[in-house]
Automatic annotation (TrEMBL):
Source organism: Rhizobium fabae
Keyword Transcription regulation: yes
Ranges where the HTH gntR-type domain occurs: 16-84
One Gene Ontology molecular-function label: DNA-binding transcription factor activity
InterPro entries: GntR_C, TF_FadR/GntR_C, Tscrpt_reg_HTH_GntR, WH-like_DNA-bd_sf, WH_DNA-bd_sf
Alphabetized UniProt keyword annotations: DNA-binding, Transcription, Transcription regulation
Residues in the signal sequence: none
Name of the protein described by the UniProt record: FadR family transcriptional regulator
PANTHER family, per database record: TRANSCRIPTIONAL REGULATOR, GNTR FAMILY, UXU OPERON TRANSCRIPTIONAL REGULATOR
């Protein structure tokens, strides 16, 4: 590994999420051109020595870059920067969401997307859209009543709102989230008491029904307020979980 390569990795900070920090550093070096298309990356051992992180962290960071199409690996030869390393599409993969802070960033992104989408859906929804949203809402209610997480049903309901904008780019962008938009491992529902889970389920139903009603009734401002309230409360809960974890 050259002195220049060492300089790349010696700038790596040691944040709470080491894998994310290393992946972000490598991504920045690739996107800036410091690591050029076709260039061979240092070995895992060399990266470990330069950054002080474990082999597991290095491998997870490289797996993230490979999933995003930024690098390729060849058996016995190592990892290389892709010949066309510019990501062709935006995506969020499970490895991206390794901390509550990452989940909060996704919620922040969703707020910007869904706030506008809810308003457009209220203005443009068709009878078919309303029926679809009602079906998705019923499925979510059933999942919550049965004590489930409702992650897939929650995703399907929110996606039906984006479909109702009549702008396919919204739903196509939302598809990059998939069911990991709120990863189950961070929801911590399994740590709730029975009473807490019931209150959580009641809040979920109340907030989702308010969103649906506003869109169904064609009330643009109410739809925007309802989705903002819903995502803001989700954000507040995750902030509480993060703060509680930090103080424990």
């Amino acid at each position: 590994m050259t002195d220049k390569d060492n300089a790349v990795f010696n700038t790596t900070r040691q944040p709470p999420n080491l894998r994310s920090g290393l992946a972000d550093t490598l991504t920045a070096q690739i996107e800036s051109g410091d690591l050029k298309p076709g260039q061979r990356l240092p070995t895992e051992q060399a990266i470990m020595a330069a950054t002080g992180v474990s082999r597991t962290i290095v491998r997870e960071a490289l797996a993230t870059l490979r999933a995003k199409g930024l690098i390729t690996t060849h058996q016995g030869l190592g990892a290389f920067v892709s010949n066309d390393p510019t990501p062709r599409s935006f995506s969020i993969i499970p490895n991206d969401l390794q901390s509550i802070d990452e989940v909060l960033r996704v919620l922040e992104l969703r707020m910007g997307i869904e706030y506008e989408a809810a308003g457009l859906a209220a203005l443009r929804r068709t009878g078919e859209d309303i029926d679809r949203m009602q079906d998705r809402l019923d499925a979510l209610d059933k999942a919550l009543e049965e004590g489930g997480y409702g992650a897939q049903e929650d995703y399907a309901f929110h996606r039906s709102i984006l479909v109702a904008t009549q702008n396919s780019y919204y739903s196509r962008l939302f598809d990059t989230f998939g069911n990991i938009m709120v990863p189950r491992q961070w929801a911590r529902l399994d740590k709730m008491t029975s009473a807490e889970r019931k209150r959580h389920a009641a809040r979920m139903r109340r907030e989702h029904h308010a969103i649906f009603a506003a869109i169904r009734d064609g009330n643009e401002s109410a739809a925007r307020r309802a989705i903002r309230t819903h995502l803001s409360k989700s954000t507040a809960r995750f902030e509480e979980l993060r703060d509680a974890s930090a103080s424990s």
